[in-house]
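Lab notebook, bench 4. Still working through the backlog of constructs that have no structural model yet. Next entry is a single chain of 75 residues. Request: give me the structure tokens for it.
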Amino acid sequence: MQGTVKMYDPATREGIVVLDTDRSELVLASDALTGSLFRMLRQGQRVVFDLDASGHATHVRTGSEPDLGIPTAEI
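Model written out:
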């Protein structure tokens, strides 16, 4: 799923992502950034994420990470 970060508080790790398809607001899971390239998120940032069983956004990543099958430059 894709969306835009509406808000994120790095101190509490709480945030909201707005889903692209229907503009619904999804709460970020407390571990949403675990294993991600992100250390924090900023308002307006575009992200790709999964939904967990409770409907929280989790596994937040960018659209250029290898798991999406998009070529990236090797360093």
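Notes after review: The chain has one domain: 2-68. The chain is about 0% helix and 35% strand. Flag for follow-up if needed.
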